[in-house]
Structure formats: C-alpha cells, structure tokens
Amino acid sequence: MVLLRKLVLISLCLLWNGVSQAALTIEITKGAETAVPIAVVPFAEQLPGRAPVDIAAVVQADLSRSGYFKTLPERDMLTKPSDAASVKLRNWRALGQDYLLIGQLSPNGSRYNVQFQLFDVYQGVQIMGYRLTVSAYELRRTAHHISDLVFEKLTGKPGVFDTRIAYVTSVIGAGGKKQYKLQVADADGYSPKTIAASSEPLMSPAWSPDGKKIAYVSFERKRSAIYVQTLATGQRNRVASFRGINGAPAFSPDGKRLALTLSKDGSPDIYVLNLANKSLQKLTKSYAIDTEPNWSPDGGNIVFTSNRGGKPQLYMIPSHGGRVTRLTFTGDYNARGHFSHDGKSIVMVHANRGDYRIAVMDMKTRTLNVLTAGPLDESPSFAPNDTMILYASKKGNRSVLAAVSVDGRMQQKLAFESGEVREPAWAP
C-alpha cells in the first residue's frame, strides 16, 4: 500500500513550494572535453543607438551550452572583424580556433538587416553566409535561428535553439497561498509567458506534435481534470473530467488522440481519447496502477509505468490494445518513460534504494545508460533533435531545471534567482 501511494504521488500529484519569477541563470556544470573551438565575434552595429538584442552574445551562449562547442571569450580576441575583407585567419589559428563567426546589424526602415558569415579557419574558406531582414521583436529568435544554422552545418544535426519549453512554477501569494503557473519560454528560458494560472495545482504539460497546443492537468475545480489549450488564442477545452484520477496526458504523433490515465472504473488504467468525437478506448485492465503513457514516434505503441510486477517498471502495449510487454528489469524503480524522436531509445527516471536519476535505454539491446548523479531527478524530456534531455532536479533545497547530453558528457542547471520550477517539457 505504501508503494502504491508513492507511485500515485510521484506520477500524479507532485507539489512544491517556491517563487519563480526572476531571471534564469544557466550554469554549465560539466562540459565535453572534445568540444570544438569557435569564435563568435560581436556583430558590428551600424545603428544610431544600441540594438535591442546582442545577437552574438545569444549565439555564443547557445553554442556553449550545446556541449558541442567551446566559444572564445571576447577578451581573448585579437581583432573583431565584421566583414570578410577584415578577416585575418592566421590570427584565429594562433588562438586555436577551428571556426569563426562574424556579422553585422544595420537598419532597414523600421526593420533590421542581419548578416553573418561562418569560416573554416584551417581550410581558409567561408562555409556559410546569410542575410536576413527582421523586426526588432524577431531579433532574439533570429539569433537562435543563426545558432541552429551553425549547429547543423558543423554537426550535421538540426539545432534546437529556436524551440520552446513548458514548465510549471508556483508563487507564494497573499496570505501564504500558492499560485501555480504553467509557463512557456524559449529553450534558454527567456521570454516566459504564462499560459494558465490557478490557486490549485497545475501539472503534466504535454505538447501537441505541431507545437500549437498544450495538454495539462488542473485541479482548479478541486479535482483533477485534463485541458487542451491553444497557445495562439488562449482557448482551452476540458477534455477529461471523470470521477477519480484524470492525469498524465500525451498527444499521439498525429495530434488526434490523447493517451491518459483514468481511474473512473476503479484502479488507474491507460486510455486513449479521440479528441474529435471524445470516444474512449481502454487499453489496460489491471488492479495495479498503470500511468504515465507516452507514444512511440510511429504511433504504434505506448510505453507506460506500472507496479503490476510489484515495483514501478516500464511496460509497452500496442496503441490499439493487445499484449503488454515489460521493458525494464534493472533497478528498483523505472518510470516516466519517453521515446526519443527516432524511436531508438527511451529516457526514464531510474532508481535504486531511493536514488532517482535520469537514464536512457537502447530499445534494440535494452542496455541502460545512467546519465545523471541524482538523487532527486525526474520528468525527463528529449530535445527535438535527441541530443539533449531536459529534466527537473534539485540544487540544494530548491527545484531547478537541468539538461544533460544523451552521452552524459555535457550537463547544465537552469535556475531562477529564487524559487523553484518543475515538470519541464520540450516542444517539438
């Protein structure tokens, strides 16, 4: 009974204290020794005043925290060219740089021209160059876009800097009462926007495949219910409000269905809800707790957490129903499974004797690779390019967000100046 209550608590009702309104600080706690040296020179600004966004600083921060690149501090630069004619590659070879990024920012009426060039220092050639015209509002996103272009050019993998994350915070309001907020921000934590707010808990945000909607659990009516909200308009629909538990929503790859946990028939089971006609299909029928469903990329299977074997472990079932297969056998506890976007691996919370860490399992070999040090790591979510994993962790006594590369070589903490943040989910 204690184990059953613990599983329900962790998967459906994680609550916390704290304030989460201040600026975000990103601390790289472990870097890759093989990171590629790159110099990102401050962009020349042909403007009457300062630009609203320091594009080079944003690009430098993006590339640094990816773990793939080691950026050169501005103070160590011998020169600061902004056009190809001013570039002397021998200076950058002397500084041990493999690549050089330069750029310019100039006015274009009420908009801005952003130009940048990327050089291979040792080959002595320009390997990329773009000119973009954007509004002041788009400058920061343009910087992330430049980071994505550079990252893909040099690694062969799509960048994820111009993406978003969702997470839940709580604020202590008047009279000591908590105010919960579901927020969406850039992948580096900037430009947070409140999507939903309530004096009762909000949890389990899940993105639609097109990134236009978020499903989440709210207790605003003193009992759990699942809502789907359109980000552009703020319109939301309550899609599940059955007797008992309504929890852990997850969109299907086509965005037409939700997998969810319901206990309307007794014990918590996995269901699939058709969002168009509201029909329900019950997938699991067990006296145990079945929860935390997540779809495979092809939509053919659903991984979920169950204690049907005595302890929480990951299982899989065809999304149309059928035979249940147990996936994990190593460890006292494996839960919160999420498929990678290529379907080759599953990230999870893995524990032995109460030490909760983030681990990735290869679906072909079933080999488990533990990536983090714990002891209270939870809620993992793959980046859209599968190179990083976002999760919730502890820094001292505070809950923070953290990220780790899939090989464990790069780790970082994302903490607000005060307060706590939980339940992260990386957008498509």
TrEMBL record:
<dbReference type="InterPro" id="IPR011659">
    <property type="entry name" value="WD40"/>
</dbReference>
<feature type="domain" description="TolB N-terminal">
    <location>
        <begin position="24"/>
        <end position="126"/>
    </location>
</feature>
<dbReference type="GO" id="GO:0042597">
    <property type="term" value="C:periplasmic space"/>
</dbReference>
<dbReference type="Pfam" id="PF07676">
    <property type="entry name" value="PD40"/>
</dbReference>
<keyword id="KW-0574">Periplasm</keyword>
<keyword id="KW-0132">Cell division</keyword>
<dbReference type="InterPro" id="IPR007195">
    <property type="entry name" value="TolB_N"/>
</dbReference>
<keyword id="KW-0131">Cell cycle</keyword>
<dbReference type="Pfam" id="PF04052">
    <property type="entry name" value="TolB_N"/>
</dbReference>
<dbReference type="GO" id="GO:0017038">
    <property type="term" value="P:protein import"/>
</dbReference>
<dbReference type="GO" id="GO:0051301">
    <property type="term" value="P:cell division"/>
</dbReference>
<keyword id="KW-0732">Signal</keyword>
<protein>
    <recommendedName>
        <fullName>Tol-Pal system protein TolB</fullName>
    </recommendedName>
</protein>
<dbReference type="InterPro" id="IPR011042">
    <property type="entry name" value="6-blade_b-propeller_TolB-like"/>
</dbReference>
<comment type="subunit">
    <text>The Tol-Pal system is composed of five core proteins: the inner membrane proteins TolA, TolQ and TolR, the periplasmic protein TolB and the outer membrane protein Pal. They form a network linking the inner and outer membranes and the peptidoglycan layer.</text>
</comment>
<comment type="function">
    <text>Part of the Tol-Pal system, which plays a role in outer membrane invagination during cell division and is important for maintaining outer membrane integrity.</text>
</comment>
<feature type="signal peptide">
    <location>
        <begin position="1"/>
        <end position="22"/>
    </location>
</feature>
<dbReference type="InterPro" id="IPR014167">
    <property type="entry name" value="Tol-Pal_TolB"/>
</dbReference>
<comment type="similarity">
    <text>Belongs to the TolB family.</text>
</comment>
